Amino acid sequence: MDKSAIRVLIVDDYEPWRRYYSAALQKQPELQVIGEVSDGLEAVQQAEELQPDLIVLDIGLPSLNGIEAARQIRKVSPESKILFLTQESSADVVQEALATGARGYVVKSDAGSEMLAAVDAVLRGEKFVSASLKSRDSNAPKDDHAAPIGHCHEVAFHADDDSLVDRYALFIKSALKNGKVAIVVGTEAHRASLIPRLEAGGVNVTAAIQQGSYVPLDATDVLMRLSVGDMPDPVRCRRVMVELIMGAAKVVKKESSQVVACGEIGPILLSRGNAEGAIQVEHLWDEITEGYGVHTLCGYLWSTLPDRESSPIFRRICGEHSAVHGTELGR
Question: d(Cα 270, Cα 26) in Å, to the nearest integer?
Fold first, then answer.
C-alpha cells in the first residue's frame, strides 16, 4: 500500500496510551493521526464518518468492546485495516480478534518494540502478531495466528468491579465460542453481573449452564471446601480442584485442556486480610492445574492492595502467575 498520507484513527480508553500512540505514529512522516476516541461505539461512528486507512484498536473499551467494534467497523468501513493494540494476551481472545478480519495484534507490553513494525506489516496487507504470544508454545505453528495456549495462569488488576466483570465476560464469551468449558468461581455479585454482559455478547447463559459448558460457582462455598481453618489445605485443594476440572470436562465430553476458569478465591482471601492464604491458594491452583492444561484468569481489585506495586504481597501474587495485566492502573 502506498503510505503517503495514511490516515490513522486511535481507539483506547486510557488517555496516556492514546497520547503515546499518537506521538509515536506521527513521528513517521507518512502517517497522519486524524482522530482519537475512547469508546467502542464512538469508534464505529468515527470509522464510518472518517473512513481511516488504519485503526489502532484496544479491546477493553466501554460501551462496546474492541472485538465487537471491529466487527461493526468491517461493515461500515471495509477498507480500513485494523491493528489491535491491547493488554489482552489470552490465545482465545487473540483468535477471536483476528477472526474479525483484523490484520494485526500487539500486546501493549510489546508496543515499544513492535508497534511500528506491526503498522508497517498491516499496511502492506500482511498479518502481524506479537512475538511473545507465539513464543508461549514451542510447538505452535509458525503462522500469523496465535496458537492455543495450554496451562496459563493470568492475573489482572482492576480499578473497579465493572472493569473486572467486563474482562471476565470477554474471557468467558471467547472460550464458549471456541467450544470450551468455562468455570467461574466468583462472588455472588460478580456472577450476577456477568449474566447480562454474556447475554449481550450472544451467549444463552441458561442453555450454557444446562449443557454444562458454563459452570458458575460461589467462591465462598468453594473456599470453605478447600480450607482448614483460615488456610487452604493442599490435600483438600487437590481433591476439590481436580473434581471441578474433570467434572466440568466430563459433562461435555472434552479434554481438561479445553477448560478455562475465572477464579476469585485468592482475591476473597486478600480482601479479608489473609494475604498468605491468597498467595497459598494461587500457588496450589497453579501447581495442580499445570498437568491439566487449564487456562485461568484471576481478577483482583486495587483497593485490596493499598500499597499498590510497592507491596511485597503484590509482587508475590504476581509471581504465582504466568502473565500480569492492569499494572498501569496502579500507578
Answer: 44
Residue 158, domain CATH: 3.40.50.300
Q: Give the residue from 64, 99, 134 where a domain finishes.
A: 134
pLDDT in tens, 83-111: 999 888 777 788 889 999 999 999 887 88
Cβ atoms of residues 40 and 64 within 8 Å: yes
Continuous H helices in the chain: 15-25, 40-50, 66-76, 91-98, 111-123, 131-134, 161-177, 188-200, 205-211, 219-226, 234-251, 265-271, 275-289, 312-319
Q: What predicted TM-score, i.e. pTM, was given to this entire model?
A: 0.61
C-alpha–C-alpha distance, residues 96 and 253, integer Å: 23
Q: Give residue for cell 470509522.
A: 47
Between CA 284 and CA 233 the distance in angstroms is 9
State the chain's maximal CA–CA distance in angstroms: 67
Q: Do 117 and 215 sit in the same domain of this protein?
A: no
Indicate which CATH number applies to the domain containing 107.
3.40.50.2300
* Domain count for the chain: 2
Q: What is the Rg, in whole angstroms, of the alpha carbon atoms belonging to the chain?
A: 20
For residue 329, the 8-state DSSP code is G
Residue 125 sits in the same domain as residue 59: yes
Domain range spanning residue 254? 152-330
Q: Are residues 202 and 173 in the same domain?
A: yes
d(CA 168, CA 297): 8
Q: Give the 3-state secondary structure of residue 172.
A: helix
pLDDT > 90: what percent of the chain? Answer: 60
Residue 331's nearest CA partner among 301, 310, 315 is: 310
